[in-house]
Amino acid sequence: QVEVVESGGGLVQAGGSLRLSCAASGRSFSSYHMGWFRQAPGKEREFVAAIHWSGGSTKYADSVKGRFTISRDNAKSTMSLQMNNLKPEDTAVYYCAVDKRQYSSSIYYYEREYGYWGKGTQVTVSS
Q: Most buried of 38, 56, 100, 115, CB within 10 angstroms?
């Protein structure tokens, strides 16, 4: 019923920028929170950023605050993650995720609250 596809990953030097995109199919895209998670080699998957279904509020992991910006375009059923001043520790597979529920009152960072996931896109930041 819901398809989630990420794109935009690649190889960049430290200090550079990348913009990730997520396309999600479905008839009620605008009613779900959206989030980004990442998983580095040998580490657990971790929260990166999330955006309210309305686009009115956002949350970020402390490690990316001030460098990453999450946004969404409900008319196009897409979400983006603008990543600036990238660091080697940002290297990971980045996953787009969709909330399990419609019109949730608060956004969250715990992956168990998300029900739909993309296959991931690789981001590699060199020194």
A: 38
How much is the average pLDDT of 67-84? 95
C-alpha distance from residue 12 to each of 7, 29, 93, 95, 108 (Å): 15, 31, 14, 18, 29
**Alpha helix locations (H) across the chain?**
none
Contact in structure between 47 and 110 (CB atoms under 8 Å): yes
pLDDT band at 109 (very low <50, low <70, confident <90, very high): confident
- pLDDT at res. 25: 84
> Measured at the alpha carbon of residue 23, what is the angle toward residues 21 and 28, in degrees to the nearest 5?
135
Non-local CB neighbours of 40 within 8 Å, separated by 6+ positions: 89, 91, 92
Give the per-residue pLDDT at 29: 86
d(CA 86, CA 109) in angstroms, rounded, equals 21
Q: What is the mean pLDDT of residues 4-24?
A: 96
